[in-house]
Structures are given as C-alpha cells and as structure tokens.
Design a protein that fits this description.
Chain lengths: ~280, ~400
C-alpha cells in the first residue's frame, strides 16, 4: 500500500471535508467579516466628509483622547506588575502561591460589570474609602482615575498569563549563571531575563492594549458618562447609537475596529516572526 | 607547557564545522590555518603555551564542616565534612537522592545549609551569596545566554564587574580569545549557542566560568546531557584542561566510570552522608562498604555467615577469611573478573546456567546451591579455551573478595 493511499484512508471522505471547510468559512463570513463590513459601510454611508466630521467633533476627539490616555497608563503598569508577578510566581516558593495563581484569572472569570461595581463599593459616596477621599478631595468615581482602575483590573491577566508559562519553561538556570558570574540584580534582569522574555512581554502587551481600548462594561459602571470628560470611545459609540446618530456611532466604531485590526496585524507578525520565543501555551488566547 | 597538545575531541558533527572555520579564518588565525592547510580533515592542533590563560597554580583549599541540609523531614546533607586540596579534581559520586547535587549547590551558594560551614582557603563563605562567592558553576544543561554570541557569553562575567574592577575592552577581548583557544573553539566567538553542538556548548559554558578566575570550579553532571561518544572524549579533554589550569574542581556524577577515569579523588555519597573518600584505586579495590562495592561496579553477592573470622557459605565446605568482621549474617562480594574456575577439590560448586561469548571475553552465568542470586564469572577468551556448556558443573574460586556484615 502506498504512502499516499494510506494517507487518504486516514482522512474523511472528500465531500465531508469540503462541507466542513465551507461551513467554517460561511460562519466566519456571516458572523465576523460581514458585520465588520457593515460597520464600515454604515460609517461611510453619507460620504467621507461626514465620516471625518463625526470623528472631529469635540466629544469624539475627547473620547479618543481618553481612551488613548487610559491605554498609555494601563500598558506600562500592567507590563511592570505583570513582570513582578511572573517573577515572584516562577522563581520563588511561598505559601499561598496556588491561591495567587487562581486569583490572576479572576478578572477573566468575573463579569466586567461586577468589577465596576466593586470599584463603586470601594470608592463610591457611601463606599469604604468615601470619607478619606472626601477629606483629600480626590475624585475616583465618575472621573479618569476610576476609568483607569477599572481598565487595569480587567486587563491585568494578559501580561502575567503570557509570562508565567514562558518563564517556567525557560527555568532559572541562565539567571543563576549570571549571578554566579557576579552580575547584580539589575544587570541580570537587563541582560539575561528581559532579552529572554521580551517577545512574550510584547505579545502580552498587545493583547492587553486591544482589550484596554475596547473595554465597555466595567468602564461604563464607573465612568458616569459625562460627555467630553469621562467618555471613552466605546461609551461614546453607545451614546451616539442610543441617540439614533448611527453615522456618528458607526464612524467611531470603524475607528475602534481599525485600532483593533492594527493590533491583530502586529500580533500576527509577532507570532510568525518570533513564535518560538513565545510561551508554548500562547495559542489558548 | 609549550608542548603541542593534540585536540582529543573528534566528535563527528564538529569535524565538519571545524573545516568551515578553517576556511573563513584563513589568514587571520595562523595556527588554525596551518593545521588545516596541511591536512584539512585533521582536528585542530593547538600549542598549549599559546592559549593557556594562566600557568598551573595552586588554586584554593576548600573545607566543608558539618554541613546539614533538610528538606521537609528528609536529610539531603547529614553532617558532611570534607577537605579538598588546592588544585584537586574531585568527583561527588552517588545515585540520585544521595545529596551530591545539594552538596555542590551549597558550595556554590545556590542553596544555604541549615548548619555547617563552607570555607574557601581560610575565608568563611557560608554567609556569602552566590554572586559574592566567585565560583565557576557549570550547569548540566549549559545555561548559555541564548541571545548572546559565544564571545559575549564568555565576556559576561568580566563585563558585569563593578566599573572600578572591570578590565578595559581590549583586555576583555584578549581574555575571550585566550579562552576560546583553551576550549579549542578559536573563531567561534561570533556564533550563537544554538549553532553549536552539545559538546561545544559545554566547553563554552566552561570557558565562561573560567573567565572570572573562580575560586573553585563546580560542575553539575557536566556530561549528563551528551551522547556516549562525545561524553568520553569530553571528559578526557577536561582532565587535560585541569592539568593545565590547576583549578580546584568538583564535579557531580552518578556514573562511576566517569568518576574513576577523571577524578583525583572520589567522594561516594549515600543519603546525605559521605560513605567513602579515596583515590579511584582505593575506591575500586578497597571499597569501605557493601554499598560502595555495589555502586562502583558490577558485584556478585554470596549470602552466608561469619563465625570466628571465617565466612561460611551454607551447604559448602570452603570458608573464606573475614578478618575483623563481626560474627553473624554476612555477604561476600566479588567482581565477575575476580572469580576463577578452580580444581575439583577447591572452590564452590556451581552449575552453568548460560554462557555469553563476546569477541574477547566469556561471561558465565552460574547458579550456586543455596544462593538466591546467580553469580557471574568473567574471563578472557584465550585461544583453545572452550566455552562450558549450560548445565555443566564448575568450581569457583574468588581470587579477590570482601566480606561485609549483612
């Protein structure tokens, strides 16, 4: 029996193969590609000029600015704390490590609305820290800090979950070798640890930024929806949509989708180029 | 020291790469080019005097005092005392779980002992961190820095020194070149670890450790990840290297052959204690316990008892001297090649179960009456000798043996 023949035997009949592939493509087209095209279609329905006009109106600009501002804070914070956390978990043994590991996934498990409500309970006018905040006249809810905190909570796991399997897989030997050769902590981190995890870190940061830009639920609870002040891009879209300004809503939506697409392309490039330097388990995302 | 040293390492995947190097380094590195232009397939010839980074020197004494280390109830080290002399090459030998790796890691400062002291010369290093000890540690899986070239790997220790103690760039570069010569990989400086074979990686790891002029060199199962052929070549090379550098060196192994061939002295460990310390000859020919006897090579064991300084085998008339062994149940240990066939009125009666003939050797598997375990006998196949057939009777005389209390 030839190899080619045996290979055929292992496969399903041709008609089934083609049917399955066609079904997969159909589902992708109707559930993902078509809606995305519809968004773009609706965004440009009244011409390019209107699209530009909807995006340059002050509320839209301030929403975009707030979204980028949030991302600019969330990314470095999550990157740094993600590294600390991954370091602690993979390099040390301590009590409660398993508990910590399960807590990392909490933001994925909890509904974003619940996460937002937790912040309200902590920082709201009748919350735990209410008197303290009032005393120092600090506003967290219905202001930028609340939005940043909510986004931080939601996106925290991305970097850590990318780095932990990667650092586990690489082991501590290279770091110990660096120490035994006389390197201090900073030299070891800069010249050994960071180069080993940089692509994994970038990958985690990309996923984190995609989610940070698109986060709706938690941010919606804490934002207060003050136009021009505490509206992020997703909240801005919702408001416009509720007010039957579909052109404006879809224009903003196309911008958000565009940002997501850029992230996706970067992610593809990273996987194709440096796939071997990413954690083996990265495909679960 | 100026005698030419022929590269003992001829691993097959290396012969090819070496040729490639000879071509692209032609004109740059004269001794390499000469070696290859006369006989391109020959391994590199190096003049030892050219590349030895320092003349043989005394190194430093190492004292271990009453080291203890416990892991949740299990003693990994149990009162270990050891003195390693400057310039010695010592093997820490034992099965897994004997504490040999723990001991090496405690000396390096990778682990801290629960109690006891590690002294380098007369300095107490027990409280010093890994970074402060200045030991050269070579990991079993090399732990080379993947994203750095071979030269950058070797230079890492010198470059990581605080600014006032750091040599200038030219000195570092020269030192790296010297070490590349020493490990017989000249011209490999620009390669990355993934472009090297296992044996080459291990030598780079060694050069990286030697670059910092370590107090002691510690090797954790240095040949464990290599295939059999490379392993034998690399350990002979390491022995030669040690003779040139005179570095106080400890290495961990579970392979008694490796320890016997390579080490000046062997430390046999058992459950966190030192069972015996001695030269390879002492360990092999005079094992202090049944455990060492069994671990260091294949052993035949005969069960019996000692009465009045003689070992009695149940059901056999022949007795054996057992001076200094207390009365009671005992075991006689003898190696397969230390047992000879005897005459009718001498020795222990045995029946041949199976005979294995190798090119130059015959191994007989025999059953001795009253013994649960079979006995193996090994002798060289001299011309005219016929292999005894299975089922035939034979008398055995252990020429060299040891009796230990059971």
């Amino acid at each position: 029996m030839s190899d080619a023949r045996r290979h055929d035997d292992l496969q399903e009949p041709a008609w089934l193969r083609w049917a399955l592939i066609a079904l997969a493509i159909l589902v992708m087209l109707s559930l993902v590609v078509l809606p995305l095209l519809m968004v773009l279609g609706a965004a440009f329905a009244k011409g390019f000029g209107t699209w530009i006009a909807s995006l340059t109106q002050p509320d839209a600009v301030s929403a975009l600015k707030l979204t980028l501002f949030t991302v600019a804070i969330v990314l470095p914070v999550n990157a740094v704390f993600g590294m600390f956390m991954a370091w602690a978990v993979t390099r040390f043994e301590f009590r409660g490590k398993q508990l910590l590991l399960s807590l990392i996934d909490l933001p994925f498990a909890v509904s974003p609305v619940v996460a937002g409500l937790c912040l309200v309970l902590l920082f709201g006018s009748s919350g735990w820290f209410a008197s303290l905040l009032q005393h120092y006249d600090v506003k967290i809810l219905f202001a930028r800090p609340g939005i940043v905190l909510a986004t931080l909570f939601i996106t925290f796991p991305f970097v850590v979950r990318e780095l932990i399997p990667l650092m586990q897989q690489q082991g501590a030997d290279e770091e110990l070798a660096a120490r035994s050769l006389g390197a201090g902590g900073w030299t070891m981190f800069r010249r050994v640890t960071l180069p080993n995890i940089k692509w994994g870190l970038l990958y985690g940061v990309l996923l984190c930024s995609a989610r940070a830009m698109g986060e709706f639920g938690a941010v919606s609870v804490v934002s207060g929806h003050i136009r021009g002040l505490t509206n992020t891009l997703p909240l801005h879209i919702e408001i416009l949509y509720n007010e039957f300004d579909s052109t404006g809503a879809f224009a903003a939506a196309s911008l958000l989708a565009g940002l997501a697409l850029i992230t996706l392309i970067l992610k593809f490039w990273l996987e194709a180029r440096h796939g071997d330097a990413l954690a083996k388990s990265h495909r679960r995302h | 020291m100026a005698t030419p040293l022929r590269n003992p390492i001829v691993d097959t995947d290396r012969a090819v790469t070496e040729q490639a190097i000879a071509i692209d380094s032609r004109g740059r590195s004269t001794h390499v080019t000469t070696a290859h232009s006369t006989a391109p397939v020959e391994p590199v010839t190096l003049r030892a005097g050219d590349s030895a980074p320092h003349a043989p020197r005394s190194g430093m004494d190492l004292h271990l005092r009453q080291l203890n280390k416990h892991y949740t109830g299990v003693a990994a080290l149990d009162g270990v005392d050891l003195h390693v002399q400057a310039g010695e090459l010592v093997a820490l030998l034992g099965p897994s779980g004997s504490g040999k790796t723990t001991l090496l890691r405690v000396i390096a400062g990778l682990l801290h002992p629960d109690s006891g002291q590690v002294l380098f010369g007369s300095d107490d290093a027990t409280r010093l961190s890994l970074r402060e000890r200045n030991v050269g540690f070579v990991f079993q899986h090399y732990a080379l820095f993947k994203h750095m070239t071979v030269a950058e790997n070797i230079a890492f220790g010198l470059r990581s020194r605080p600014r006032r103690k750091r040599p200038d760039k030219a000195t570092i570069k020269r030192r790296v070149e010297e070490l590349l010569g020493l490990i017989q990989l000249p011209g490999f400086g620009d390669r990355y670890p993934e472009q090297l074979s296992g044996g080459q990686k291990q030598r780079v790891a060694l050069a990286r450790a030697l670059a910092i002029d370590p107090t002691v060199l510690l090797l954790d199962e240095p040949f464990g990840a290599l295939d059999a052929k490379v392993r034998v070549e690399l350990r002979r090379w390491l022995r030669q290297l040690h003779e040139r550098t005179g570095q106080t060196t400890l290495f961990v192994t579970h392979d008694q052959e490796e320890a016997l061939e390579l080490a000046d002295r062997i430390v046999v460990l058992r459950e966190g204690r030192i069972e015996q310390v001695g030269t390879p000859d002492e360990i092999y020919s005079d094992p202090a316990s049944a455990y060492v006897f069994d671990f260091i090579g294949r052993a035949n064991v005969l069960e019996g008892e000692v009465r009045g300084g003689r070992f009695h085998l149940p059901g056999h008339a022949r007795t054996f001297s057992a001076d200094g062994v207390a009365d009671g149940a005992a075991r006689l240990y003898a190696r397969a090649h230390d047992i000879a066939p005897g005459s009718d009125d001498d020795g222990i009666g045995a029946r041949v179960v199976a005979a294995h003939r190798l090119a130059d050797r015959i191994t007989l598997e025999l059953r001795v009456e009253g013994q649960a375990r079979p006995v193996e006998l090994d002798f060289s196949a001299t011309p005219g000798l016929t292999t005894p057939a299975p089922g035939s009777e034979l008398r055995l005389v252990p020429l060299r043996y040891r009796v230990y209390s059971a």
